[in-house]
Amino acid sequence: MNLGILFFLILFGGWTAGKLTQRIKLPAVLGMVLVGVAIGYFYGNSLPASLDESSSFLKTLALIIILLKAGLGISRSTLNRAGLSALLMTFIPCIFEGAALTVILNYLFGFDWAVAGLTGFMLAAVSPAVVVPSMLELQSKGYGQKNAVPTIVLAGASVDDVFAITLFSVCLGLATAEQSVSVSSALLAIPVSIITGLVPGIVTGLLLAWLFKRYKMPTVEKVLILLTIAVVMVELGEMIESAALLGVMTVGFLLLERAESSAVELSSQMGKIWFFAQIILFVLIGMSVNIEVAMGAGLTGLLAITAGLLFRSLGVLIATQFSDLSFKERIFCVIAYCPKATVQAALGGAALAAGLPEGEVILALAVLAIVFTAPLGLIGINVFGTKLLSRDN
């Protein structure tokens, strides 16, 4: 397929499908994902080879844009209201689901413990690419602001992946036995990853706040500088395995604190860029889904994923137990923590690439998790967000 035609299908097809799903009271991103699934299913064998090289960067860039917008909308007072619950939401649900899935997959699929562990924590990662835009939309409409519910979910979802990916890497190392893996040093890598992601974000945020206050420049130039630095941060973060996306959100937060007028301008511009970026992101996520592979996991795979979600839900309820959130708000947090897409799309084939005999089944489980939880989570957030969260006028 010609690259120009593909670009037209992604942008125009994704936008059109988004409008159609909105007409039937479903989230627009669901239509975008379905368009991506259709493109991948009908044209998968004829897609340009260059797409594989660029799709990863395009998805990362879209994620950077939405996380910057999220950071630019979180004030210190809102973060203070989120408090302990935001911290607990970063790891308790992930550990509950990952540990439960490890046992379940060992029993249902006969995976050894290391393979069950890497599969469980790969499946446990929540998707910021799906969750963050939904939270920002609710936040912009004033829902859940009193107890900072969207902020709790935003903060938790942005760090949840750090735990999931780190523990996935530990188990993959154990499963392949290609390297000596110290569990204690691997667990230590989690706070190290968070710190090495936060510190560059803090330094960058402070420097940009000073720069934007000291020198007058057009907003478009500020956007260019911010996006360029954020992309470099993420690229370097991948090289040193740091939580760079958390650092990106921190940049936005500090800009709002130290250079509020510039932050407001930048947030507005990021919203306009996000109009295009979200279409590309969700259509590409849909294109990474292979329906035939997903069906290979069967009902047993669906049972395992559902059981994992139940344990994640229990983790969410425990993490929010001592907060000021009402029971309805806590149930909403459970729903908002369901969608999976980004990490599963990225890591689903890692076990197969590493030569593990269970690789095909693991890939099928990853695809099934995306097909099952992404639409379910999106619909749940869209339908119940306005019913379970109070609106502050």
From TrEMBL:
Q: Report the membrane topology from the UniProt record.
A: Multi-pass membrane protein
Q: Which domain of life is it from?
A: Bacteria
Q: What is this protein called?
A: Cation/H+ exchanger transmembrane domain-containing protein
* Xref: InterPro entries: Cation/H_exchanger_TM, CPA1_transporter, Na+/solute_symporter_sf
Q: Name one GO molecular function term.
A: antiporter activity
**Pfam families recorded for this chain?**
Na_H_Exchanger (PF00999)
Where does it localize? Membrane
The answer on whether this UniProt entry bears the keyword Transmembrane helix reads yes
Task: List residues of the Cation/H+ exchanger transmembrane domain.
Answer: 9-375
Q: Where are the transmembrane segments?
A: 26-44, 56-74, 86-108, 115-136, 148-175, 187-212, 224-253, 273-291, 297-319, 362-384
* GO biological process assignments: proton transmembrane transport
Q: Where is the signal peptide?
A: none
Which cellular component, as a GO term, is one annotated location?
membrane
Species, as recorded: Endozoicomonas montiporae
UniProt keywords (A-Z) are: Antiport, Ion transport, Membrane, Transmembrane, Transmembrane helix, Transport
